[in-house]
Amino acid sequence: MKKAVLASLIFMSAGTAIAAPAPVEDLAGGNATDRVARLERIIKAKQQADFELQSRVDTLQQEVLDLRGLVEQQNYQLNQMLERQRQLYDEIAQLQSQKNSVAVTPVATAPISTGTGAATSTLNETASYQHALDLVRKERKYDEAIVAFDNFIKQYPNSTLIANANYWLGQLLYNKSDFTAAKQAFSAVVTRYKDSNKRADSLLKLGLIAEKTGDKVEAKNFYQQVQREYADTSSARIAGQQLAGLKG
């Protein structure tokens, strides 16, 4: 009898358990309003993180430019010292040749005067470029540097530094978001000075300008050109990263 009663109780308990509805649990946590609010907070946090990352990238890019400017300045000064040394050797050789010459000629000869004039012109060119570079690196007077590089380009169109001057002008204009003028300066480096060591960076900057102005097709073409023509360089690696971002 006891077994029958016990079995009946167990059966009734099981039936009650089956009949009672299980509590509904929101697997996402909270109601729809809470989920929307949580999603908005996640999006805002991501946007803030992206903004901070871009700020850090911009800072690092400026530091790289400063270091490049320092290296460029030192290399240029070294080249100018070597060039001046060569000119001095040439002048000494000319003087020695005149001394040993059988013909009687005045001491102040035309070749010596011409050599001095060429050295003066070179020094003026060097000083102009150095002044523009110092405005960027030392004084941080970027608007004045834009004018200085623009004047240098107009005054010394055949200078060996003309590609570098165009690149720096483009970079300064790019930093001011004057993308139209910056594109013109970078394009000059790409099309006119194909042997310049600034050409890869100029191509990369043209891609960045195209991307910032909404032309993703042109940006992709520039990035691919950097990878194709300047593989295994820092410019090519950055171009690859930008391409990945475009695909995403």
Automatic annotation (TrEMBL):
This is Cell division coordinator CpoB. SUPFAM superfamilies: TPR-like. The gene is ybgF. It comes from the Bacteria. Mediates coordination of peptidoglycan synthesis and outer membrane constriction during cell division. It is found in: Periplasm. Belongs to the CpoB family. Keywords: Cell cycle, Cell division, Periplasm, Signal. Its main location: periplasm. Gene3D superfamilies: 1.20.5.110, Tetratricopeptide repeat domain. InterPro entries: CpoB, CpoB_C, TPR-like_helical_dom_sf, TPR_rpt, YbgF_tri. Residues 33-101 form the YbgF trimerisation domain. Residues 1-19 form the signal peptide.
